[in-house]
Amino acid sequence: MSLRHPIISVTGSSGAGTTSVRTTFEQIFRREKIVAAFVEGDAFHRYDRDGMRRHQEEEEARGNHHFSHFGHEANLLEELERTLASYGANGGGRTRHYVHDLAAAQRFGQPMGTFTEWTDLPRPTDLMIYEGLHGATVTDGLDLARHADLKIGVVPVINLEWIQKIHRDRDDRGYTTHDVTQTILRRMPDYVNYICPQFTRTDINFQRIPTVDTSNPFIARWIPTAEESMVVIRFRDPRGIDFPYLLSMIPWSFMSRANSIVIPGGKLDLAMQLILTPMILSLVEMKRRAG
């Protein structure tokens, strides 16, 4: 954590919806004239698409059927921690981009499934925002969570997460439903051991819960809409959270526990704006005071 160079971490599984949360942050940054450095978790995968496929086949031949992007071995987590530590210390660091889809391939001018070259983060910036799988990971001699000043978890119920992943990977990335299903099965042990524990360390969790039947996510024809959902917002430390204000500003919201508020899914962007804007401004103000 750093007063002079604050870091916000947005953490969620593949298909959880972290990208949409990043969009809300971008809107806040634009409105408040905040300059941010963006770091994508996918940039710190160890292997490109072809390399990952080869290593999965090798691990399968050794009897390991659960080698996945969720685990330590498939990621450069030490490099990620160095980037976070460097930014916290001096506002610098390095990153790259993973070319997921056709739009990214056209943007970066290289094939899908590859990495761009490593580059330095822009300077100067007011803060960094990390968005990816491992923003609050603590394991194997690593403590990524300690570097973030504000940690946010995006955690839809698991059937909804799978529906979102299946539709995204099939429609945007060209995979079959069978391919995505096999990926979900292969990742399950790492999901339990690496992904889930992070959400006890996050400061705020946004969990979307559909109000329609998602019993079999592997045959769902549509992703439940925001209007067909509720969102549970859990604060690890509710001190200082003005719940009466939030309840008055968000129609049909209610408190389910002393540290949790439930809102209609269609009000998620409004809720994030109301909750996150003062927190971001507080980080920036502390940075400016620290000089």
What does this molecule look like?
By secondary structure, the chain is α/β, with parallel strands linked by helices. It has helices at residues 18-32, 49-61, 77-90, 102-108, 158-171, 177-195, 243-249, 268-290, and strands at residues 7-11, 36-40, 94-95, 119-120, 127-132, 138-139, 142-143, 150-154, 204-210, 229-235, 254-257, 260-264. The longest helix is centred in the C-terminal third of the chain and has 23 residues, at 268-290. The protein has one domain: Rossmann fold (3-Layer(aba) Sandwich). Helices cover 38% and strands 18% of the residues. The strands form 3 sheets. Strands 2-5-1-8-9-10-12-11 form an 8-stranded mixed β-sheet, with helices on both faces. A two-stranded antiparallel sheet has the order 3-4. The protein has a two-stranded antiparallel ribbon with strand order 6-7.
By CATH, the superfamily comes out as: P-loop containing nucleotide triphosphate hydrolases
Distance between the termini: 16 Å
Instruction: Indicate the percent of residues in helices.
Output: 25-40%
Biggest beta sheet summary: 8 strands, mixed
CATH topology category name: Rossmann fold
Strand share of the residues?
A: 15-25%
Spatial order of the strands forming the largest sheet: 2-5-1-8-9-10-12-11
Poorly predicted regions: none
Discrete helix count: 8
Output the radius of gyration. Answer: 19 Å
> What is the H/E string?
EHEHHEHEEEEEHHEEHEEH
Please state the second-level CATH architecture: 3-Layer(aba) Sandwich
E-strand count: 12
- Give the rounded overall mean pLDDT: 93
Q: Please state the overall shape, judged from the principal axes of the Cα atoms.
A: globular
* Class per helix and strand makeup: alpha/beta
- Just give the CATH class: Alpha Beta
State the domain count.
1
